[in-house]
Write a structure and sequence with these properties.
The protein is of the alpha+beta class. 54% of the residues lie in helices and 19% in strands.
Amino acid sequence: MVYSLLFGSFLVGSLTSIFWARQRAGRLTLQFQRQLKAERQNSTVYEQRLQAFLLALQASPNGVVILDSDRRIEWCNQTAARLLGLDAVRDVAQHIAHLVREPQFLEYLSQENFEHELRFDNKALQLHPYGLGRALLLVRDVTDVERAEQMRRDFVANVSHEIRTPLTVLSGFIETLQTLDLSVEEQKRYLQLMGTQSQRLGALVADLLTLSKLDAEAKPSLERVNVERLLLQCEREARILATVLKRDITIEFNVESGTDMLGSASELQSAFSNLITNAVRYTPSGGAVQVKWRQNELTVKDTGFGIAPEHLPRLTERFYRVDKSRIRELGETAGTGLGLAIVKHVAQRHGAQLEIESTIGVGSTFKLIF
């Protein structure tokens, strides 16, 4: 009887222990499953964030290459692949030095000095170390930068040349006046030539300041401009220039009356004047210059020397000269070489188009369409 009671008590206790053990196991299993689910969710979130980060790098306009501690490629975007000639899939795990073989780059890698970027073949590269020996290689296309830098150097050289010429002449005249015993007539002639050179310098400086202002200001100051009055001023300038050049030129203005437009009066005056005075400068005696304004379109037509087709795309470059020998023939009456560059800038700032047509020996037509 006692044994039966003891055995029964033991059995109940065992069953109870098993029950609670199973309960605890169930709770642990449930807790583990929840933890596993949370970790999977976190892993998915991390994976999504990583993919979003890589997509952002993929969209970067610059090339990005992720390198491990041995300088092997772990990942690169399509921009880097294009600039460096890589394959974004095939070249993973390849050493960057085996794929980019330019001597400058290999030397750059070996020096371990990455404070400054390296440039070659219109590309700029810079390595940025991070973590435990890993590195980010950034690559960008500097073709436009190099072109702009070359244009800046050419511009400075041209400005220096254009300024040096009249200054040299002025210095020579001054030295002549100081050292030689000249007659009154000779002195007057030299002083007149000095005045011409001074005016040339002044015109050059004025055009440079105009271009600088156009480059610096984001938008033109808008006002209501009376085009008829503006072109009347341009007509006076054109006739005075023809007289100074001693050219027998027919100058005709056909202007639609009562026309106003929104824009910068000073900029429009500069653009219109440059087109018209250029036509007068390059039209010989016996020729004609016709100026017409109709329906927001300025047309300046001349019967000048004409321009060969290969020169037309470059006419609006600063200091671009079609025929330097003709410039020498014009001498002091030649323009500064900045007029059409100013016209182009003003047109862009006013949402206008500049169209140029020309035939050698026949003449040229310039249109500003607003």
